[in-house]
Amino acid sequence: MKKRPIIIDTDPGIDDAIAIAIALKAKELDVRLFTTVVGNVSLDKVTNNLLKLLTFWNVDIPVAMGASEPLIEKLVDASNVHGESGMDGYDFPSPNKSNLLKEHAVEAMRKTIMESKEKITIVPIGPLTNIALLLKTYPEVKNKIEEIVLMGGSAGRGNRGVMSEFNIATDPEAAQIVFSSGLKIVMAGLDVGWKALVYPHDSVLIKDMGKTGEMIYSLLQKYRGRGLQNGLKMYDSTAIAYLLEPEMYEVKETYVEVELNGKLTRGTTVVDLQNYLKKEPNVKVLTDINEEMFKNWLLNALKKCD
Ligand code: BDR
Ligand code: CA
Prior knowledge:
The structure is a single chain. With 306 residues, this protein is an alpha/beta fold. It has a single domain (4-303), classed as Inosine-uridine Nucleoside N-ribohydrolase, Chain A, CATH 3.90.245. The protein has 12 helices and 12 strands. The protein has helices spanning 14-25, 43-57, 79-82, 105-115, 129-137, 166-170, 172-179, 190-193, 200-207, 210-222, 235-244, 291-303, and strands at residues 4-10, 29-36, 63-65, 120-124, 145-151, 185-188, 197-198, 232-233, 249-254, 256-258, 269-271, 283-289. The strands form 3 sheets. It has an 8-stranded mixed sheet with strand order 3-2-1-4-5-6-12-9, sandwiched between helices. Strands 7-8 form a two-stranded antiparallel ribbon. Strands 10-11 form a two-stranded antiparallel sheet. α5 links the parallel β4 (120-124) and β5 (145-151). α5 crosses α7 (172-179) and α9 (200-207) packs antiparallel against α10 (210-222). Bound molecules: beta-D-ribofuranose and calcium ion. Calcium ion (CA) binds next to loops. Calcium ion (CA) binds at residues 11, 13, 16, 40, 125-126, 236.
């Protein structure tokens, strides 16, 4: 089978960890590079978390550190959701740093993209700072990017502000650079994330799925201040699910722009579903998800992780 080459840009993050577990085991995907970005917690912490995960699975894929702060916005992290370390709840062995590249994420992405025979899909599951820097520094990479499948934004309400989602609101300028880049973009936002839920009875099934299942079960106990009872949102896995099983989604091609000036709405993705702005669509927005298909997909995918 021809595997789809991807780069994952991430800020682990408990839901990032679950998405990464699934991506690494998917036979349809070839993860060529990981890049880290400040978001859920500081750049040092998210990089350390990613290295912990890769060490846990004994995976040898290069990692490059990217932006340590958003372009303009001041960072408000999500340690209230993911814990002080950004990935609280499991006692990982100390991370092996041998896959950590000396190059900055932007350089590593450029190299990976330009040296690849096939076009690369970029999968950002954190703020878009690194991707914006890449596109502005090396615009030539655009010809070799298949598409960007990102978790972020919302066609409705927000989770960081009234209307804004965390990944976009953390770096609104970066997000607008990406959305206006002319590249093919798929947006897995809160509209689907809020329906991609794991409940206590699911977590018990996950616990029995071997070493990875046990680790994820422990992380879930700490995610969102122990909010498991109400269903935990598997946001970042919704981007991976689109790559692997797009049939579970309803998709609408729409014009999307990031609000950069709003008094109360800065960092909101303005998703013009009714075409008020009369602009050409620039984003495939995932507007709905088949919840049952997602749950089956998630549990089956995690079963494959050891
Ligand atoms: C996004 O914010 C982060 O806290 C999660 O990891 C996810 O990428 C959801 O809004
Ligand atoms: Ca994330």
